[in-house]
Amino acid sequence: MGIALAQSVTGTGNLTLNGVVSGNTLIAEQSSFRNTATTTAIAVPTDTNGTFVGSIAGTGALCIGSAGVSIVGVFYAVNAASGTHTLTFEANTSNNKTLSEFSGMATASVLDVSTSSKTDNSDITSQVTGTTGTTAQADELIIIGLALATTVGSSDVTFTNPVSGFTSLNVVPNDLTDIGTFHAYKIVAATGTQAATFNWVAHEANMGAHAAIAAFKAAAAGGATQAQIWPSIQQGILNPMIGRRYV
Hints:
Number of strands: 16
Largest sheet: 6 strands, antiparallel
Number of domains: 1
Number of helices: 1
Low-confidence stretches: 222-247
Order of helices and strands: EEEEEEEEEEEEEEEEH
Mean pLDDT: 90
Oligomer: single chain
Helix content: under 10%
Strand content: over 45%
Radius of gyration: 21 Å
Structural class: mainly beta
Shape: globular
Distance between the termini: 35 Å
């Protein structure tokens, strides 16, 4: 069974997913504006029905003449318990969050590679996530996130949507009274490094942009191993090639 998005919810406060299937993986993203120059990573959210961990250690981007910070975080919980999950996130001046459930994921050691990148106090129209190391296996889920803020800002920065190759989950183009936000995912079927670029139109001085990317492993493919097949042959299973019974 391959990776698939089961459900997703967005919002500015706590987020809840109902009917989560046991064993699935939960991915949370948070794009925030802090009205302070503190650039420490966003705190891991708490879950009423499990435990999340962080997938990146990146720090936020200074903006508004270094008087504030745009910051994004990506978090995950593997082998989720069934039922309802409500997440409480770090509180900031502005927050946009996404909580998603994916099936077909590894139930242990799911995080493969991740990185983040930022631009401080600059007049920019794009932000890269940075480039990860080579993924460990072909089938993986790639998650990207962006937080964007500036001095005055625009009610719509006009993002290029979608990011090439990705499916959008949460897009908020308002960086005037909100935090510019872009959360998205894609599923890949070949090993390699991973990277993405967010692009937008409206821009001005003192923009701060922080982007992140994380790759998560699919569950191992099924199928019998040689160790499982040989004892069956010894016990008299028909040889599929010649139709004889071994005794």
